[in-house]
Design a protein that fits this description.
The complex is a heterodimer. Chain A is mostly beta strands. Chain A is built from no helices and twelve strands. By secondary structure, chain B is an all-beta fold. In chain B, strands 2, 4, 5, 6, 9, 10 and 11 form a seven-stranded mixed beta sheet that branches. In chain B, strands 1-3-8-7 form a four-stranded antiparallel beta sheet, with no helix packed on it. In chain B, strand 5 (43-51) and strand 6 form a beta hairpin. Chain B has strands at 4-7, 10-13, 19-25, 31-37, 43-51, 54-57, 64-66, 76-78, 87-94, 104-105, 109-113. In chain B, 34% of the residues are buried. The chains are: A mainly beta, B mainly beta. Chains A and B meet through strand 5 and strand 6 of A and strand 5, strand 9 and strand 10 of B.
């Protein structure tokens, strides 16, 4: 069965500092990996995805994520955090050649960027 | 550019009441989904549809029903509301190519059952 773990409920970082939000996954085959962001009282918005190719994936708002097959991780990163990045971040995984009905979400990590 | 639209945004129900959460999308997506979001639990799939006239159960379907008479609309019905159905509900859609792509979410419907 597919699963994804976000080990931190909350990440605190000062504005201007780099940030990392961690995600590890488990699938039996090759994964499709996603990061979504949720701002207060809003739906989830797509940030970036890994399908195949380069292990470093760039997405919206300056975010990037690194796919590491040996560590089964897909950590979200940004070189310089903004206060406006404060939100709830979800990692999600599905196995290649399956539909979104098989997508499994993590429990979310709240990112708090202080001025 | 509406995307995925959900109504109502907020609703309070009494135990045993029924209601329908509406969802419509204008992106001509074949696939539509209903999720519920509970604190610390992530999102759980309730029902999904791969096209008009076709629906199937997700991970947590009990207490809910859906229909898909058109490509655009995917309503979620609660027949006998229970406190355990207090949650935030999200409708989502995705394009036909399910090997790539992404989910597009509505802004959510917050339901409280008292």
């Amino acid at each position: 069965a597919q699963s994804v773990a976000q080990p931190e409920d909350q990440v605190n970082v000062a504005e201007g500092n780099p940030l990392t939000v961690k995600c590890t996954y488990s699938v039996s085959g090759n994964p499709y990996l996603f990061w979504y962001v949720q701002y207060p009282n809003r739906g989830l918005q797509f940030l970036l995805k890994y399908i195949t190719g380069d292990n470093l994936v760039k997405g919206s708002y300056g975010f990037e994520a690194e796919f590491n097959k040996s560590q089964t991780s897909f950590h979200l990163k940004k070189p310089s955090a903004l206060v406006s990045d404060s939100a709830l971040y979800f990692c999600a995984v599905r196995e290649m050649d399956t539909g979104f009905q098989k997508l499994v979400f993590g429990t979310g990590t709240r990112l708090l960027v202080s001025p | 550019n509406a995307g995925v639209t959900q109504t109502p945004k907020f609703r309070i129900l009494k135990i045993g009441q029924s209601m329908t959460l509406q969802c419509t999308q204008d992106m001509n997506h074949n696939y539509m989904y209903w999720y519920r979001q509970d604190p610390g639990m992530g999102l759980k799939l309730i029902y999904y549809s791969v096209g008009a006239g076709i629906t199937d159960k997700g991970e947590v379907p009990n207490g809910y029903n859906v229909s898909r008479s058109t490509t655009e609309d995917f309503p979620l019905r609660l027949e006998l509301a229970a406190p355990s159905q207090t949650s935030v509900y999200f409708c989502a859609s995705s394009p036909p190519n399910t090997n790539t792509g992404e989910l597009f979410f509505g802004e959510g419907s917050r339901l409280t059952v008292l």
